[in-house]
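for the recovery benchmark. tokens below, seq after
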């Protein structure tokens, strides 16, 4: 590395830079605290560890706040969202009814199916003759 010019020159008019003193590192309290933290780390003790009960209580509180926010968001639904939900529920009910009817028809005995087909064909023939 290149050395600065002021090292070679013995010019008394120049102000030579000095290394700044870090007041935090020179303080006795900081040194003691640093030494204590190093010792605790070697032992495996972490200063930020909280008691288990406190952790559980904080987690419950966070969960409760999240649930409250979700409930408030659901309560603040707009009229459009409410109408869409109603329509969706109606469509689901209609689909369930259709499925029930199909299951009933599939589970019905064969003679009931044939009888229904005969009635329909009889009605269709009657309508065709009237037209």
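predicted aa per position
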């Amino acid at each position: 590395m290149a050395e600065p010019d002021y090292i070679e020159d013995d010019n008394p008019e120049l102000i030579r830079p000095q290394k700044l003193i870090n007041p935090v590192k020179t303080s006795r309290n900081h040194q003691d605290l640093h030494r204590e933290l190093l010792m605790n780390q070697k032992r495996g003790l972490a200063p930020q560890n909280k008691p288990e009960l406190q952790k559980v209580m904080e987690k419950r509180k966070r969960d409760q706040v999240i649930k409250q926010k979700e409930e408030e968001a659901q309560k603040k639904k707009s009229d459009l969202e409410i109408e869409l939900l109603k329509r969706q529920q109606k469509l689901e009910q209609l689909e369930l009814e259709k499925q029930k009817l199909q299951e009933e028809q599939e589970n019905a005995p064969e003679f009931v199916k044939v009888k229904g087909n005969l009635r329909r064909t009889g009605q269709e023939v009657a309508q065709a003759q009237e037209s």
